[in-house]
Amino acid sequence: MPLSNEEQKTLEELEASLLAEDPRLAHAMGSSRTPKRAHGRRAGLAGLGFLLGVCLLLVGMQTVWVLSVLGFVVMFGCAILALGSWRHMSHEPKEKVRPPKSSPHPSNDFMTKMESRWRRREDDGRL
What we know:
Blueprint: H1 5-21, H2 23-30, H3 36-62, H4 65-90, H5 106-124
Helix pairs in contact: 1-2, 3-4
């Protein structure tokens, strides 16, 4: 389920405040993503594996049926790996989130906004 614009903006503010307060933690949490190049290499290797699976499938049809089953399993696994890598390549962020420039203490502004939103929801009876 995609985030609404308001939720996306709130998430970006959270990321920016984390980056401003503790850059080492933000870098450690953001370093779990593998680069686009690694995903491309993985997708390419999965394509080669898929072709190997096709060869096994065809050879197995002429000789032993077990090779055909093994070829199909290899093809299926490589297709899943390639699609997953391709999906990760297309969903990587294009630009980094920058901390807000207006306030020397961005976390105070953020917390103030969150508290005011919370109070408005309490007053409206949505909680």
